[in-house]
Amino acid sequence: MSIAVSIVSTIIKSAVKSEVENELSNELFGISIDGISEKGINKINDFINKGKSKIDNILSEDKMKSLAISEDNMAYVVAEIKGLFSEMEFTDEIFRQFKYDRFNLRDFLWNEYIEDKTGYIECKSDIKKSLLFVSETLIGLMRESEDFEKDISIQISNSVDDTRIEMREEFNKLDTYNQMILKILEQNQNAKTMKNMNTKLENKNISIFISYSSDDGMVVDELDKKLQNYGYTIERDIRDLDYTQSIKEFMKRIRKTDYSIILLSDRFLKSENCMREFFEFIKDDNYKDRIIPIILDSAKDIWRDNKGIEYTIFWKDKEKNFKEQLKRIDEESKSGYIEELRHISMIKDSIGEVIKIFRDMKIFDINDENIAERISHYIKKKVV
């Protein structure tokens, strides 16, 4: 999760739960040097409190009146919105997916609200009206947070430079032996920094496509962030599929990336779209050199002898159900679904071989804390 989204998420939590924890703002930057972090943390807390005031204003009685919410419904509407936000986790993908559009974000929040509700929904129009205004405010906060993130990062960097100047003044007071040790340590640190910078520059030219089930999105967000920290160019459908671009065109783009990370889960192996991405990537002869499988807990039993049979049965049943549905429509309407049926049939016939391919490959474990480092090392060995 980006720092900007973390800030917005913290603001929302502080508003709906009526509390601001200093620890939350500290975690936003992960700063461990007390002398440097104090100013930055204070500024973050100030920014969070100002954002909280904006959320409080949205949910105030005066604002409800300005939105023409009846007095009888005000308390209920505010309580429902707070309840929604207290259960939600805001991520980068939410804001990217709706391209900072308040209407799209409002619709998303509304769908989240009604997901577990059945029958009549009380104060429907008032809640939707309020969510639109909330969405507009959240998008404004997101943009302010992105600017704030850049500003505070610069200030913290300047604080680090000031600390180094102070250390240099103290350095002159040390004896020759200790000065020599400090110089060696400083040279070593500079060498590490330069090495990291060079690694990022080298990796920038390496593109990696991540193929995954949308149900595993939270896992992917974290992996995406870790790999970008190593300098790789990461492509994902949710971020890189332009609304003007067809799915077929995007599939062709996948084959042009240097590597494809497969987030191997039970949901992946049961997804038509995931299988479509996989089959597109293996059209090239050298696909085994370019695929990097990462296994999730739900797929760790694919090594069982009968697992391939279970997935074949799953796709066979899906094919059968699809054919039954096709029988219920006229011949002229069937033409648009024939390609999808062929795709399902191909998966059914190939899923056993797909699992065999993964069994024969080096597979990384998503639970490995150093997974990004191991993938980087793996790619580096292949490049060499």
What does this structure look like?
By secondary structure, this protein is mainly alpha-helical. It has helices at residues 3-17, 22-29, 34-58, 61-66, 71-87, 92-97, 102-114, 124-171, 176-203, 217-229, 237-240, 247-254, 266-269, 272-281, 287-290, 307-326, 331-334, 338-359, 371-383; strands spanning 207-211, 233-235, 259-264, 291-295, 364-365. α10 (217-229) links the parallel β1 (207-211) and β2 (233-235). The longest helix is centred in the middle third of the chain and has 48 residues, at 124-171. The model is unreliable at 19-37 and 240-245 (pLDDT under 50).
Topology overview:
Layout: H1 3-17, H2 22-29, H3 34-58, H4 61-66, H5 71-87, H6 92-97, H7 102-114, H8 124-171, H9 176-203, E1 207-211, H10 217-229, E2 233-235, H11 237-240, H12 247-254, E3 259-264, H13 266-269, H14 272-281, H15 287-290, E4 291-295, H16 307-326, H17 331-334, H18 338-359, E5 364-365, H19 371-383
Parallel strand pairs: 1-2, 1-3, 3-4, 4-5
Helix pairs in contact: 1-2, 1-3, 1-5, 1-8, 3-8, 5-8, 7-8, 16-18
